[in-house]
Structure formats: C-alpha cells, structure tokens
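With this grant's support, we have settled on a layout for protein records. An illustrative entry appears below exactly as we store it:
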Amino acid sequence: MGIPSAASPIGLGMPARQRSGEDTAGRASELALKAFMSMSRAVAIVGPDGKLLLPNSVFAELFSGTELIDLVSPEARRNGGKSDRQIDLADGRAFWVETIPMEDGWLVSAYDMTERLAKARIDTLTKLGNRLAFNERLTELLAGPDSPEAAVLLIDLARFKAINELLGRHVGDQLLGLVASRICSTLESSDVVARLEGDKFGIIQTGQLQPQSAASLANRLVDLIGSAFLLEGQLISTSASVGIVLCSAGESSCEEIMKNADLALHRAKNDGRGTYRFFEKAMDDKMQLRRELETDLRSALTLREFALVYQPLLNVKSNTITGFEALLRWHCPIRGMVSPLEFIPVAEETGIITQIGEWVIRTACREAATWPGDRTVAVNVSAAQFASPNLVTTIISALAESGLDPQRLELEITESVLLDVRGTALTMLKILRAIGVRVALDDFGTGYSSLGYLRNFAFDKIKIDQSFVRGAPDDTVGRAIVHTIASLGQSLGIATVAEGVETEEQMTRAVSKGCTDVQGFLISRPMPPEKIGDFLALQDENS
C-alpha cells in the first residue's frame, strides 16, 4: 500500500478544519497533531481495517517507496489487544513493530532492527559470521527446493586451551584471527564461513562436486592451519581436525547436519588430530551406544555395581608380596562384565570419573586397612581426576576415615597427568607426598618418557609398560628399554616394576635387567578382597 500524505489529519478522530481561536479543543487537537508529526520515532495511525491512515514524517521517510505488508498482526485484529512482533520486508530490512489499540484503530510504532540484527550475526573477534548466521544460512539452504548439494565442515584447533593458559588470552585471540584469515584464503566466493564458538569454525561449501571438493578443502585446511604462526616474536604451532557431512536440500534439518558434523569431528580428533573424517552412519550408531553406556554408568554407583579386585606385586629380592594394585570392575546386570577399556574413557570424557574415582579411593583405603603388615595399596588416578580441586581433600578424608597409614597408599599416575601447563597437578602431588602418600609413574616408556618428570618430582616407583616386558625373546629393542629404565631407577634410587609378567622366561628376563618388582598373572590374577587373607597366608607358608 502507498504512504498517505503526512500533512493529512485523517484518522486522528479530531476536526478536519481549523476552529476559531476560542475553541480550546481545536487548539489541543492541533498541538497533538504537531506533537505526533514531530516525534523522533516512526509512528502511524492504522484504521480498523488495517489500512495505514496517517504516518508521521519519520514513518513516511522510513518506508518511502516501500510496499508495506499488514502492520497489525492477525492475532491483534482478532482480540483487539496490544502486539509486538518482527516484520521482515522484501528489501532485506527488519523492523520491530508495536501496535496499541485505540478507540477506532491502532497506534503503530516501528523500530529499524536491520543493523542491530546484522551485528548480532557477526563474531566481533574474527569479523566472520557467528553460529546464528551460520545456522540461518544452512537452514535456508536445506529449505530451498533447488539448492545445490553442499558440504558442512567443522574445524577444531588442537592445544588452543593450553596456548591460552600458557601465553595469555590476548595471544589466543590473535591466533584465532590468523586462523580465520587462513581459512578464508581457501574458500570460494559462494562458501559461507563462521566462528561457531571458542576455537571451532564452520564452513558451508556449495556449488561444487562432492565429496571430492570437501575432501580437497579439508586437506588444504589441515595443511595450512598446521603451519606455525608467528605471534609476538615466537612460533606457535597448532593443528586442525575437520569433520565433514554432505547434505542436500530437504534431506535433513540443520540440527541433524550439525550433530553429524560434530560426530565426524570427534572421530577425526580421536584418530590423532591433523586429519579429517566424513560422517558415516556407523558413527551415529556408535554414539547412540555410547550414550546408553553413559546412562548405565551414571547409575552404576548408586546401584552398587562396582567392585575392586587386587593384583599383587612381588619384590624379587625378598620374594615377598609388598602390595596390591586396586583394579576397578563393573558388573552391569544388563551388560554383564564391562571391560575398563570400554567404560573408563567414557567416564573420563563425561566427568563421571570424579565420582567413581572418589569411591575407588575410599574403598581401597578401607579394605587395605584390614590387611596384615604394611603392604601398600596402589590406586590409579587419571588426569581428569586431577582436574578436580577436591582430589587432595578426598584422599586425606579417605585416609582419616579408614585409619590407613598414608605411606601405605600409592597413587599411580601416567605422564598425561603431568602435561598440565598450569602445574596444579604437580602441586597437588607435592602436597600429598608431604603427608606421606607414595607416587608411582605408570606405563613408563609408552609416552614422552621425559626425564624432566623424574627430575621435577621424586617418584617412589616406575612401572614399565607390559608391552616391553612381554616382547619376544628376539625383541632386542624391548629388552634394551627395560634394561635402560631399570638402570635409571637404580641410579635414582627408584623401584622399577615389570608389568604383565606371565611366564617364567619373562620373569627371569625382568630380574636380569634389574627390575626390583614384578606384577602379572605369573604371580597371581586379580582377586577379590575376601581372598587376600588366604593368599597372603599361603605366600607366608611358601616363603
């Protein structure tokens, strides 16, 4: 509809002709009209039929040359009440329109939201689109009947959190800006790119042959982002993992596409980072099974489905059992016995490991307190548990409640615990060590095996991974590693344990290389706590 003349007083419900100077009501009407026309906000009078009757000058200018749609919502027409809503015009502008009922029509005010909405779709740090803009474009693409086949790529950076913590937030922000620039340099003009959150970026690739184009783009992104960045005079290295999902118009929702892309990204990260993976149906099936496992795992503690078994350690010099390692077992009524290799990673990823770990520590301390002598109990503590500020207080509380001598508790940690740029894990270990708790470095030889760990912290024990102990007789490399670690322990006054000893030949080899202790099926399989007394009594008889 057209815009009526702003000079016409039609629809104000007041006289059309100027009355005499003595007519107070007329003067009031004139003043009201002038005030209405001079308002800085866009306002107008709309008749009962929804037709625009009188706009003020701001309203007329704002909508000049525009074919207006109905300003009054159908709901407001039906009930005659106030309404607020967003109206999008064909020219791309958006307005927030408020309608207030009058005696004969509505008073309408309009606010131009176009610029504000545009800013709400921009990531201020990288100047790319944000998740809102990305999802809107993807939804629009999927809804279009003639939309081309497209691919959605999700990109995640490695070590970004560590870079932020180690070098500062400002360096992390600069890195994100440089990554955004490198991503943009790989794209075609028809592609859409956005920073979705934190260090995660998204790309919608359209108008190209798939899946070849998505794979080629992912390769370029991995290579380009994997090259070092120069920031504040230092080289910063990261890597990119990319998850890809192919989509066509009308096949899936935006939510389904993003969920599948996340699954593909998760797979790429688990496969070692610096790579890309396409979504496959099997990924979704696997994730469904994982969610079911997580649900069962969360209820396992409450339902008392966990138990501890204990595997002994033998000191080769004295030929006596010096301690036991506590091993977690889960007997699920539905799943049966669930392997720790299956449920521990899920527990760590979801954070459930904190509650499970506390139960393990308290149970191990309580049960070990009943053993004869001063035999130790070793408990595995993961990096995820060290992320909890309550770990130290939990251990101290467990020792106090059980009455176990702190020197009889041994924490087994892997190198991943010490890959903590803030050093909080090392601080916690030193506090626990100060009260007498022993600490062992587990699976030594499989990770970085940095001698710096041994220099920064006085470990009581080094456990040599079973993959080196169980090597074939002609495995000279494995033998050399066992010998080197055992010699290192001897030089530093640290006990060394050969894990996974199953045969007499492996036992002889471990002892000949200098290991002070052995652990494995040759000594004993893990046993429930009620069997430990009989086992120790038998060992004492045979010693």
